[in-house]
Amino acid sequence: KKRRALPRWACKLLAWLFMLLAFAALATVAITFGNVFGPTATQNLIRSWAVAATWMFALQEPFTIALVASVPYCLEGLMANAACAEVINAALESTLCAAISGCANLCRPQ
Hints:
This protein is mainly α. Helices cover 89% and strands 0% of the residues. It is built from 3 helices and no strands. It is extended, with a radius of gyration of 25 Å. The model has no long low-confidence stretch (mean pLDDT 85).
């Protein structure tokens, strides 16, 4: 039996419902936290959420995207040099061999 993909409008509706559910959950946490710990602690909680979101979207996410986008170009440039390519291949082989043997040692019955 072949499954059919949801229509585009249904995917958008589900995404919006998920976002509203996440908002409601966070609002419920903030209200409950406020009732238990008071307004000062609640303001600190919401401020810490704002700092974390700012850190993620303004600093960490662009750096990660730039790093992921630039790695193939850097490796391509390094692999063009025969000496660098030999070192990189040796490092990858030894790393992969060490990882595989480590996994094999973990899986080996004692």
